[in-house]
């Protein structure tokens, strides 16, 4: 039964640690990507629709007007830097991005938008650029790339909440198992407990060994969960993901070591409360 407590605590706290690390990872990715998120000013092509594209592809004069607007005293204070991507550059990037996709064979450079890629000093002020350029002639659309990131982060948040839900169920199972284990342990030692009562031992004196037994089992399980977190971060996150996906920021072993004492404290407190409740009720019977 004690081994069962260790294993259930280990599994449940591993889910808790995973949920915490997922939230830390999401926070790191937001800080990393939101600062790099650009505003894309897509110019009209011959196949574009909309009032701004009524005359077909953006003309050189319209492109010059958009460039002047970006460099104007009104917008330049919000802009860190920007660059222009013409049809050929857009086509080269498209071919690289969709190299294994059959659609790449049917796309021509003139079908792809010429684009101004704008880095803002404060990405949260992208609405200023959207409002200023959306009505310009030759502009098909102005898109804040953070909208795409929000969809990804919403999926990651859903995964994190799922892990929290599973962890909560596992913690409830661990609490019930600890309580059951303590009561069975007390029942198996009922003769010793009777003798201790006869010689005047207080309830606190009788309860303490059982509470320590539950806390010790949970402590071992929480250490195993912490070790699992460190191993996952070291070998999988840093050893695999960080190597194969170098364009983003990942949690490190230091973050896992921050989670470790949280798991130990949570496991010990739950075990102490559960064991105390179980043995107190048993002694009242």
From TrEMBL:
Q: Which UniProt keywords apply?
A: Cell cycle, Cell division, Cell membrane, Membrane, Transmembrane, Transmembrane helix
Topology within the bilayer: Multi-pass membrane protein
Q: Under which name does UniProt file this protein?
A: Cell division protein FtsX
Query: What exactly does this protein do?
Result: Part of the ABC transporter FtsEX involved in cellular division.
Q: What's in the GO CC field?
A: plasma membrane
Which InterPro entries has this protein been placed in? ABC3_permease_C (IPR003838), FtsX (IPR004513), FtsX_actino (IPR047929), FtsX_ECD (IPR040690)
Domain of life from the UniProt record:
Bacteria
Q: Where in the cell is it found?
A: Cell membrane
């Amino acid at each position: 039964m004690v081994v069962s407590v260790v294993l259930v605590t280990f599994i449940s706290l591993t889910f808790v640690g995973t949920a915490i690390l997922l939230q830390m990872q999401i926070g790191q990715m937001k800080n990393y990507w939101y600062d790099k998120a650009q505003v894309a000013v897509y110019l009209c092509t011959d196949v574009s629709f909309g009032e701004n594209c009524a005359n077909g592809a953006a003309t050189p004069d319209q492109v010059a007007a958009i460039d002047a607007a970006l460099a104007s005293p009104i917008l330049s204070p919000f802009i860190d830097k920007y660059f222009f991507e013409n049809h050929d550059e857009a086509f080269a990037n498209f071919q690289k991005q969709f190299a294994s996709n059959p659609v790449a064979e049917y796309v021509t450079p003139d079908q792809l938008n010429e684009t101004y890629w704008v880095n803002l000093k404060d990405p949260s002020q992208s609405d200023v650029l959207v409002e200023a350029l959306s009505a310009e002639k030759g502009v098909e659309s102005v898109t804040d790339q953070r909208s795409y990131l929000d969809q990804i982060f919403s999926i990651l948040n859903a995964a994190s909440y799922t892990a929290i839900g599973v962890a909560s169920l596992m913690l409830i199972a661990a609490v019930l198992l600890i309580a059951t284990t303590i009561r069975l342990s007390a029942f198996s030692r009922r003769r010793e407990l009777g003798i201790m009562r006869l010689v005047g031992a207080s309830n606190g004196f009788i309860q303490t060994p059982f509470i320590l037994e539950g806390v010790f089992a949970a402590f071992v399980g929480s250490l195993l969960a912490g070790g699992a977190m460190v191993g996952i971060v070291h070998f999988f996150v840093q050893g695999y993901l960080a190597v194969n996906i170098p364009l983003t920021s990942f949690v490190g072993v230091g973050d896992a070591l921050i989670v470790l004492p949280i798991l130990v404290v949570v496991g010990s407190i739950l075990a102490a409360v559960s064991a105390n409740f179980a043995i107190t009720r048993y002694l009242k019977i």
